[in-house]
Q: What sequence folds into this?
């Protein structure tokens, strides 16, 4: 302890007693905080850990600060003990004792190690109040390092270990369905996730402060949260792989049923195409002067892929069967749709002929109801249209023109019959 510095007006007995009580309470609070820091789980872990990077640098500074805090605390305690001893000499201290107490309690008479901004000095003189401020500042900085490291170590390694356990489970399932590195993209992804989790855990253990996000604007020691960005990305990647492996597992369970469905769909498509080819021959024989589209044969590519899928099923190569079967189901449905469209296209002329026959019969029935079927103006167009529609090959364009001519003639006959009936009725009245 050096010589007392200027301390201002001499304190009276009441001021001395109040100051001693306050400094005593502060001493107890500082002691409690330092012992709490000494026993902090984060500090014990930092002391025994092999550290790297940011944590290694900050812990070296914090460790020096903690050592300095204890030294400052001892200096503070000695000064407080000395002041209490002077005050305890008598109930009513004399002026010399009050001068000494004023210098001790308010003066800058404590010699402590110089701070970082002390321009090269090894020691400096401070007051008790200033020493308390320094200890509070140093304690907050040291606690920030200890609490941040403890928070990261408490949160991330355990979560990484749980994710690694899930990774091993997915890896085992993937291997059971042939999803392996070098053979399937999901297998390569599993290897990458494995490497990332190993590296992430190593970095979290050796440099926890590199994974700490402090709360901006907060002065509370240890205020912030662990940075889980890399962990979250690895978890999402593993979830994507898990869904893909689950899809492959589902293929293994439903493979027989789905293969049967594809085989049935292609069979129906083949039968429909065969029916369309037969119908096309019939149309070409029965219909003249009409464009009939050609009908292709069954898709050899789809049948080859179906055979490949069946082979994958027999060999248990589920990871290859899964994407192949997904595509096969869609293309088989498209093939069936194409076959039905082809049948509809080639049978369109027969539908047109059937529609013309229906129109002709409908108008003939109408004129028969009116007793006009023997009208000379209707017999010839009706016979001509019927002859065209019931002969082979049928010229649809000519037959449609003949049916239209009969319709017109029938309409004229009906109109003439109605007019004659009206005239006869008026003459009878």
A:
């Amino acid at each position: 302890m050096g010589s007392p510095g200027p301390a201002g007006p001499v304190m009276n007995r009441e001021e001395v007693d109040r100051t001693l009580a306050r400094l005593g309470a502060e001493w107890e609070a500082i002691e409690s905080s330092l012992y709490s820091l000494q026993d902090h789980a984060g500090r014990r872990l930092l002391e025994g850990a092999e550290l790297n990077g940011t944590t290694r640098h900050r812990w070296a500074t914090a460790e020096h600060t903690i050592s300095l805090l204890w030294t400052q605390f001892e200096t503070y305690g000695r000064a407080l003990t000395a002041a209490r001893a002077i005050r305890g000499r008598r109930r009513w201290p004399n002026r010399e004792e009050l001068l000494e107490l004023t210098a001790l309690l308010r003066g800058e008479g404590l010699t402590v190690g110089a701070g970082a901004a002390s321009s090269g000095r090894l020691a400096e003189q401070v007051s008790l109040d200033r020493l308390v401020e320094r200890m509070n500042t140093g304690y907050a900085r040291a606690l920030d390092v200890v609490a941040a490291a403890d928070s990261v170590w408490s949160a991330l390694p355990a979560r990484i270990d749980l994710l690694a356990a899930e990774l091993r489970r997915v890896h085992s399932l993937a291997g059971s369905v042939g999803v392996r590195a070098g053979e399937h993209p999901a297998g390569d992804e599993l290897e990458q996730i494995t490497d990332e989790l190993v590296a992430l855990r190593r970095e979290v253990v050796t440099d926890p402060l590199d994974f700490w996000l402090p709360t901006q604007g907060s002065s509370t020691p240890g205020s912030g949260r662990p940075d889980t960005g890399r962990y979250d990305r690895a978890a999402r990647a593993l979830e994507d792989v898990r869904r893909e492996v689950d899809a492959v597992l589902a293929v293994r369970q439903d493979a027989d049923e789905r293969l049967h469905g594809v085989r049935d769909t292609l069979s129906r498509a083949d039968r429909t195409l065969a029916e369309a080819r037969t119908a096309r021959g019939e149309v070409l024989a029965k219909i003249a002067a009409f464009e009939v589209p050609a009908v292709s044969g069954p898709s050899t590519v789809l049948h080859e892929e179906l055979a490949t899928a069946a082979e994958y099923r027999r060999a248990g190569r589920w990871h290859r069967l899964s994407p192949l079967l997904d595509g096969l189901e869609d293309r088989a449905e498209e093939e069936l749709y194409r076959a039905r469209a082809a049948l509809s296209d080639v049978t369109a002329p027969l539908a047109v002929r059937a529609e013309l026959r229906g129109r002709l019969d409908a108008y003939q029935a109408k004129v028969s109801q009116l007793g006009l079927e023997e009208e000379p103006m209707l017999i010839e167009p009706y016979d001509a249209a019927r002859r065209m529609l019931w002969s082979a090959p049928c010229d649809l364009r000519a037959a449609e023109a003949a049916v239209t001519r009969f319709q017109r003639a029938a309409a004229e006959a009906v109109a003439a019959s109605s007019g004659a009936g009206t005239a006869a009725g008026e003459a009878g009245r």
About this structure: Residues 229-286 form the longest helix (58 residues). The mean pLDDT is 85. Residues 351-428 form one domain.
